[in-house]
Amino acid sequence: MYKLSTLCYIKRDDSILMLHRVKKKNDINKGKWIGVGGHFEDGESPEECLIREVLEETGLKLTSYKFRAIITFIYDKDITEYMHLYTADEFFGEMIECDEGNLSWVPKSKLLDLELWDGDKIFLKLLDERDDFFSLKLIYDKNDNLVEAVLDGNRIK
Question: How far is Cα 52 from Cα 105, in angstroms, rounded to an integer?
């Protein structure tokens, strides 16, 4: 079984908009800090999903964004998710309360201090260090431990 999703890290000055996932029941991301995004609806393109999900979760309308990576998540060999990773730096609108967690502007220097997935730490560093498009495969076991990471076809963990 496979899933398609988007994830976006929205920049403002020297901060990134992060979502602390603390409100949704039965949430695989419970307690973690992540960017904003979600799963494709039938017939959506990655960009349509990105724009819809960001608007639904934040109240912000993106006006400038960049497709940065494709992240292949494998969960205990049962589920594969292809996440389309974006960054954004221009938007308008008023932030709303998110029903999945608490939104917060976090200084870039503090991102890795948050409770993050191990794989997220890898791609957040890559987003900061690289300007080019990349492909990252992350394999997690049934206990949510990162067991393998493959960057652009080369194993890094």
Answer: 20
